[in-house]
Amino acid sequence: MKKILFVIAIFLTAGNAVLFSGTAEEFRSLSLVALLSDPGKWDGESIVTSGFLVSSNRGRMIFLGEDDAKNLLIENAIAVVPSGNSVNIESSLQELAGGYVRIRAIFKKYDPSRVIEAPLKGCLLAVEVVRPDGR
Q: Where are the domains of the chain?
């Protein structure tokens, strides 16, 4: 049984590497829960995570789930900040808003003493890839 689970885990990891065209050393697949619970541990890491994407005139965020987004539970969200000149990423973020996505980016922990507007714990910077997450 352990061997089967190990093979499945390797298969799933390999699928993520192909989907996001990189090697395992280049990024780490993390849940949004892991990022929210210990943002300092992942500060500056190139990661892949998934969540419910919301886009508004105040910016973009990914939430743990759709209910968190509907109820604006920003304690369960991180900001999404694409790099300045990526038209494809901007287009993908706009098109996929309102659904579950997988995002590859650099995670940056927010300094709690400098976050005035919201209790966000971090953001995804330099977004490289945005794909639908087939939930």
A: 25-132
